[in-house]
Amino acid sequence: MAANKSNLIYNPTFRAVLFQALAAAALFFFIYSIINNALVNLEQRGIATGFGFLTEQAGFGIGLSLIDYDETYSYGRTFFVGLLNTALVSVLGIFLATIIGFLIGIARLSSNWLVSRFAAVYIETFRNIPLLLQIFFWYFAVLQALPSPRNSISLGESVYLNVRGLYFSKPVFEQNAYWIGLALLTAIVLSIGYTIYAKRKQQATGKQSPILWVSISLLVILPTIGYFASGQPIHMEAPELKGFNFRGGISIIPELAALLLALSVYTASFIAEIVRAGINAVSHGQTEAALSLGLPQGKNLRLVVIPQALRIIIPPLTSQYLNLTKNSSLAMAIGYPDLVSVFAGTTLNQTGQAIEIIAMTMAVYLALSLLTSLIMNIYNRKVALVEH
């Protein structure tokens, strides 16, 4: 029996499980001690705990809200307003940074000296200036220098730019407008179906079909037909200057514009280097083989080089997406109403529920990061080289 116990102790698998269990127990005890001590201290100071404050009236306004909100709504509503505002700037930032980064990364490898030098200057300039300073530059030096609403810059019919933001017409949907939505949904389904058909046809015959132009045509023509067939059930509501500001239409506040520009431009400088490294990692023989088959430089890059480079680009690109989402919390510096500013800032100051609010805020950023990683990992597995 003693020999069996001795053998069990020296068993590598048993020891690994034992040490991990002990480490997990110590970690849970440490976390429990911190939470318990915090709750005791809060109770001694007469500070309430729990999430009951989420149903209390907030009593403060928010400059930008994607859902209905005013001072009479609860603190729980402020959480969702801040969450949606954070998601808005993160999604738009990822989209713009990806486009700019890929363009600059490809331009960095251009044989044109001027284009290549411009891309190099862009990369070395924006990635070496702190992001917070770039946010300040766009907000204070650029957008705050714009004229007042009464002296707005007209960028076209019913489009105005001033220190309060960018204002343009808003579409107002009437009763039969759902037909346009159905036509758009049909166009999307047909575009996806045609794309699948075209790719299978290419794999079987080697012949390419114009996927992009067919998809664009479907997305334009079908909703247009639905618009006229349903009696043109959309009219535009133009912004109008009333008093000291514009009313009606759609407005983009300068805080959103400054934050979005800074995040996109800054992150794009890192993405550009990732793209450049990924393209350089593809064997030059692949390019020579494609050119020898008569492929133009553009198709060579799009069909041969980029698909292979994506296997190298995707993992570090995911990290940049995560950094952009987390860096959006700097919005507090210029007053953009994101989750940190609205919920972990104003709501926390008014309620004093520090543990609950900070925990919820941390959980949101963790969830956004995990969701981004999940989507990118799925795409990474799709483009990864499969060995048989």
What does this structure look like?
It is a single chain. By secondary structure, this protein is of the alpha+beta class. The protein has 2 domains: 241 residues, MetI-like fold (Orthogonal Bundle); 49 residues, no CATH class. Strands 1-2-3-8 form a 4-stranded antiparallel β-sheet. Helix 6 runs antiparallel to helix 7. It is found in: Cell inner membrane; Cell membrane. This is Amino acid ABC transporter permease. It is a multi-pass membrane protein. Its main location: membrane.
Count of DSSP-assigned helices: 12
Based on CA atoms alone, the radius of gyration comes out at: 27 Å
CATH architecture descriptor text of the largest domain = Orthogonal Bundle
Instruction: List how many beta strands DSSP finds.
Output: 8
Low-confidence stretches: none
Based on Cα principal axes, name the global outline: globular
Whole-number total of structural domains: 2
CATH homologous superfamily descriptor of the largest domain = MetI-like
Coarse structural class: alpha+beta
Strand order of the largest sheet: 1-2-3-8
| C-alpha termini separation | 49 Å
How would a crystallographer describe the biggest sheet? Answer: 4 strands, antiparallel
CATH T-level topology of the largest domain: MetI-like fold
Which percent bin holds the helix content? 55-70%
Average pLDDT confidence is 87
Q: What is the CATH level 1 assignment of the largest domain?
A: Mainly Alpha
Report the sheet-strand fraction.
5-15%
The helix/strand series, from N terminus to C terminus, equals HHHHHEEEEHHEEEEHHHHH
